[in-house]
Amino acid sequence: MASKQQGGVTYNDVDSSYFEKRGLRRHARIWSLWALGVGAVISGDFFGWNFGLAAGGFVGLCIATIIITVMYLGLCYSIAEMAPALPHTGGAYSFGRSAMGPWGGFITGLGENLEYVITVAVIVVGIGGYMNSVTQALFGFSMPAPVWWAIFYGIFVGLNVMGVEASFRFTVFITFVALAILAVFFVGAIPHFSFDWALNVPPTAGHNAILPKGVIGIFWALPFAIWFYLAIEELPLAAEEAHEPKRDLPKAEILGIITLIITAFLTLFLNGGIAPGAAKVGAADNPLFLGFKTIFPGGMGAALLSLIAVAGLVASFHTIIYAFGRNIYSLSRAGYFPRWLSITHGERKTPHVALIAGSLVGYGAAVLIWLAPSNSPVGAVLLNMAVFGAMISYIMQNACELYTAHAVETLNRQHFRRCG
Fold it and tell me: What's the sign of the alpha-carbon dihedral 103, 364, 230, 180?
């Protein structure tokens, strides 16, 4: 394998067999891509966002969500422009490398990799919380959280390894199921909504029920508002498995963010504004379960619906496992990570090595935090880690867009001068 040095980076020349061992299969069309984007994020309506109620109160989280919604709209329109121009599995890494060179690509890809691997760990913590609530209510037993985590990691890493066709079909199915569960919840919660429940977070000294933590609470709530949208930017990772990436990726991105904006505000109002109120919902591992108990006070109905509600978490869990597998695969194929991580399954053409490696890292991080002596919920700690990685990726992606726009403007000026 020949190599050369340039700008502190080593480039290797590879033969055709290198890519033959790292091939992907095209399958996805617009609705599969839409489901991939929405499914990746929809768990944010089932778990995670609610910690923002404790951080900033109902109004503080509302303001934070409005701010984050505007920012994500800008990000999604930027991605909708860049993805057709660079339809590669690397996604954000490809944008960074094309605009700012190898080191820009590495930093962008590394931030996105941290985001996806840890986001999956956050979601599996939520799944464990819901499953323990359901089994306790229905069967009177529970299991240690890491056991639930291991079970779900095993099932859905296996499903992703099976092949892109099975993976996308399940993505479309589970995304529609998750949206249907949310629709049932929204309709049932409307008669129970009250601002008295929404504003029942105890205020700290010198503050009131409107902003119980003061203006600073809005800033504390921002990471949890991000959870309503985090991972919608994963869509470009499916570029090499989409039939028409230049046409379908932008449409799916915009349709996806519109869907998520609607569900985000309905969830915030209707889950935070019904009994037992924002104070308890803001500390729960299973906020939708608490809401279902209000809507269906008999207990059994709430437990069964919450079991179905796990579908929302599973939708994101499954699709972001897909994302970190493709992200690790693309960074490995480019030589940033060890190259053996990008080998794909001979028949199924799935990055099975990357999928297994990413799941082991995420599971290990969740278990370490679970074992550590701390009063902070495991999910909240992991969520902040995931958001940190996402912010690195977002800053780099927006820098790419600005750099590209500046380069295009410069070329246009030069063209007009020559024409003049």
Answer: positive
The angle, 0 to 180 degrees and rounded to 10, between the axes of the packed helices 245-272 and 30-41 is 30
Measured in whole angstroms, the distance separating CA 332 from the mean position of its chain's CA atoms is 21
Q: Give me the half-sphere count of Cα atoms (radius 13 Å) on the Cβ side of residue 211.
A: 14
Look up the CATH number of the domain holding residue 101. Answer: 1.20.1740.10
Cα(224)–Cα(50) distance, integer angstroms: 7
Helix and strand numbers, DSSP H then E, in the chain:
14, 2
Helices (H), 51-144: 51-85, 92-139
Phi-psi region of 48 (alpha: psi -120 to 50; beta: other; left: phi over 0): left
Read off the tokens for 341. 């991580």
Q: Is 3 helix (H, G, I), strand (E, B) or coil?
A: strand
Do residues 382 and 118 make contact, with C-beta atoms less than 8 angstroms apart?
yes
pTM equals 0.80
57: left (phi over 0), alpha (psi -120 to 50) or beta: left
**Residue 2 included in any domain:** no
**Token output for 379:** 């999910």
What is the rounded distance in angstroms from the CA atom of residue 127 to the CA atom of residue 46?
10
Q: How far apart are CA 178 and CA 305, in angstroms?
A: 11
Domain that holds residue 32: 27-393
Amino acid identity for residue 367 in this structure: V
Say which DSSP state 202 is in: P
For residue 411, the Cα-to-chain-centroid distance in whole angstroms is 36
Q: What is the largest CA-CA distance in the chain?
A: 81
Q: pLDDT value at position 410?
A: 62
Percent of the chain exceeding pLDDT 70 equals: 85
Residue 14 lies in a domain: no
HSE-CB of 129 using CA atoms within 13 angstroms? 23
Domain count, the chain: 1
In a domain, 406, yes or no: no
pLDDT in the model for residue 313 = 84
List, for residues 391-401, the tens digit of each pLDDT value: 888 888 777 76
Total Cβ atoms within 10 A of residue 392: 18
User: Which residue type does 146 have?
Assistant: P
| Unique residue bearing structure tokens 């959870």 | 227
DSSP string covering 8-61, please?
A: TEEEE---HHHHHTT-----B-HHHHHHHHHHHHGGGGTTTTTHHHHHHHHHHH
In a domain, 420, yes or no: no
Predicted pLDDT of residue 415: 46
Question: Is 43:126 a contact under the CB 8 Å cutoff?
Answer: yes
